[in-house]
Amino acid sequence: MKTPDGFSLNPESDVSTRLDAPQTAKYEYGVHLQTSDSFLRFPSPLTSSLCTDNNPAAFLVNQAVKCTRRINLERCEEMETLSMAYYSSPKILMVPGSGIEVPVTVQSIVIRSLNKTLTRLEDTTAILRVSNQGVVEAGHIEICTNVVLEVTYSLTYTDAGEVIKADLFLLLGAVSSAMVPLQQKFEIYFIQQNAKPVPLSGNPGYVVGLPLVAGFQPQKGSGIIQTTNRYGQLTLLRSTTEQDCLAVEGIRAPVLFGYNMQSGCKLRLTKALTCRLVAQKMKSLLKGQGFPDYVASFGNSQAQDVLDWVPVYFITQTSHVKDSCQLPVALTVEVRWTKYGSLLNPQAKIVNVTANLISSSFPETNSGNERTILISTAVTFVDVSAPAEAGFRAPPTINARLPFNFFFPFV
């Protein structure tokens, strides 16, 4: 789903969603998914490892969890949370409060036996046969069959915040007393309709000349939000022949991995402009429309894997002079990277990003003459790789013993 600024949402969060959120004409990020009778339940471990079934699934919140259940094999047929129908019967509302229902379609059912072999069901008759769990006896051992072990929801949505398709993938299996308490796995992810895959900037390490992957984290614990324009995620000023900052406003140059770059422009100031207004304008010119607060460590880092992203450390430098106007005049970005992995095929990994906003003092002018200020942006890449040291195995130790009569008959 795109925001008004052209950003697509692909975050992952473990925060609980408010069930009393106001109803809107579309789903928004974090709003729980409504069904014809309540909400789409997504079992999750909350205060313990036990599954809590009243946890709602939230829109655009990708999740993958594992939890355990205490079950009685003799009465496993009575536990609805072990049956396929419990997860396939809900009908999701296309938008909150609407009367249009989107049924959950079972796309795949895989059966796992006690010896871990997997069999995928193809025909409808076989699917109906495993729709309910049952208890069978194998010798002195009781086994509960057709128990839901893994559940995966795949929901397709539109730019308008509508859920238009819901697919379900199930893993069923047999459970014996040795597998109690039972561990189940649940996953839900969202796919945007007609969305094109975003090209990578490396796999996994960055490739020289490709743009840096950057984004924002709207709240702690959530995933990373990225703009759909891969060349607009981290940008600097673009120099032109006119050198007029107002003429090039909005025209940015992408930061490409391994390419040091410096650019700038000139800004003409008059007496009619106040210091505060000019400072805000110059800061906006230097940072652009949306300066990111996270950069991906690798060229293929996923938005939901927040640990694979490094924060951008923003530093502001000012020089305090009495009766002067503090104006930001330069933005320098330093990207530190290292070679990661094998010596034969090292991968470029970003380990630190620092953005330094430099301000200078300018005296207040009382004359009506214009003043021209030069502002600039720059990015430098610093290789902080430790020198590679070839490793050698320890030399073998000789632990040989002579036979006790080796020197016979001399000794």
Automatic annotation (TrEMBL):
Part of the tectonic-like complex (also named B9 complex). This is Tectonic-1 isoform X3. GO terms for biological process: cilium assembly; protein localization to ciliary transition zone. Residues 1-21 are annotated as: Disordered. One of its GO terms (cellular component) is MKS complex. Transmembrane segments: none annotated. It holds the Pfam family TCTN_DUF1619. It comes from the Eukaryota. The lineage of its organism: Eukaryota, Metazoa, Chordata, Craniata, Vertebrata. InterPro entries: TCTN1-3 (IPR040354), TCTN1-3_dom (IPR011677). It comes from Odocoileus virginianus. Residues 25-192, 202-384 form the Tectonic-1-3 domain.
